[in-house]
Amino acid sequence: MRRRNRWVRTLFWGTVLGVFALLVVVFSGVAVGAFEQRTLPPPPQPVPFSHAFHAGGLGISCRYCHAAVEHAPYAGLPPTETCMSCHAFIRPDSPRLAPVRESWETGEPLRWNRVINLPDFVYFHHGAHVAKGVGCAECHGRVDQMVVVRQPQAFTMKFCLDCHRQPEAHLRPREQVFNMAYTPDPELGKKLKELYKVRSAEALTSCNTCHR
C-alpha cells in the first residue's frame, strides 16, 4: 500500500511539474515570438511592389489595394485585376511585372505573403478601428516611406493596451485616417472620443474585447 501511495504521489507531482514546464515553454515562446516580430526581415513577395513609390510618390490611397479595410476585419490584398487596371497601360512589358501578367493570363492569383500576422487567439477588426478614427500609421508606421513593407513594432499586448487606455492620443478625424503624415492632437482626440463614441478604457481593456 505504501509503495502504491508513493507511486501515486510521484505521478501527481510529475504531472504538475510537467504542466508547469509546458506553460513556461509556451509563454516564453510567445514572448520571444513577439520580440522576433520586430527583428525578422520582411517575407519575400511575388512582385517587388514599392509602397514608397505608389502610396508616397503617386499618392494612391490605401483603400485602392486594401479595399476591405473600412468594413471588414481583414484589410484585404489586391487581386490581379487591381494591378492590371494601371499596368495594362503603364509599363505593360516590364520584366518585374511578369508575375502579374502571368497571373492575369492564367487566372492563377498572386500569392502575396502577409507581413503582419497576429496570433490566432487575438481578434482585431480593421473596420472598427477606421470607423473610430484610428489612422493606419498608428499600427503600420509610415508605409508611404517604405520601399519594402515591414512591421514597425512588435504587436504585444502592452502595445494594444497602451492605445486602448489612452485612445484620445491616437485618434484623428475620419477623413485623415489614411493620411500617413497626419499627427494626432490629444486635445482634439478628446472631442473625437466623444463624437465617435469610443468606449471607456474599462470596456476597451476587457479580456473579451480582443480574446473571443
From TrEMBL:
Show where the Cytochrome c7-like domain sits: 122-212
Lineage, top-rank taxon, reads: Bacteria
Q: Which InterPro entries match?
A: Cyt_c7-like, Multihaem_cyt_sf
Matching Gene3D superfamilies:
Cytochrome C3
Entries under Pfam families matching the protein: Cytochrome_C7
Name assigned to this protein = Cytochrome C
